[in-house]
Amino acid sequence: MSKFLEQRQVIFQKMAHIDRMEYGSLKAEYRPGADPQHPLGPYYKYQVWQDGKNHSERVAGPRAEHLRQAVEGRRQFEQLAQECIELTVQHSRQTQKTPDAKKNSRRPLARKQPPKSKPSSP
User: Fold this and answer.
1) What is the rounded distance in angstroms from the CA atom of residue 15 to the CA atom of residue 12?
2) Can you tell me the distance from the alpha carbon of 33 to that of 15, in angstroms, rounded to the nearest whole number?
């Protein structure tokens, strides 16, 4: 098997192991507490663009961990897909046949000479 096929197969295997994906992002937020040295939190906010709108939702710790893994799974999958695209494009360019001669290397056509003017009679 060629090196290209082996590398692509490795990418596909990594993709197959990703079993959780979710759109959006998850952010941990902290609130100021009575003691400035010890803020309250983290509080988790999940945001996703859906139906043309940005939806925002506060989520509790256990669900936040599930969403964190799912969002990370989608990011990893997208990264692997990009690697696969780059690898395939590189392979396509290497295997592309190059013509022996330039496309525009034809001999130039002989130009027609402008008609000679006849001498005028006196």
Assistant:
1) 5
2) 42
What is the percent of the chain where pLDDT is above 70? 80
Mean pLDDT over 96-106 rounds to 62
Distance CA 16, CA 22 (A): 16
Q: How far apart are CA 36 and CA 6, in angstroms?
A: 54
Q: Which two tokens stand for residue 54?
A: 């940005």
Give residue 97's pLDDT.
66
Rounded Cα distance, 69 and 15, in Å:
15
SS3 letters for 56-121? EEEECHHHHHHHHHHHHHHHHHHHHHHHHHHHHHHHHHHHCCCCCCCCCCCCCCCCCCCCCCCCCC
Report the C-alpha gap between 16 and 53 in whole angstroms: 31
Question: pTM to 2 decimals?
Answer: 0.69
What Rg do the C-alpha atoms of the chain give, in angstroms? 32
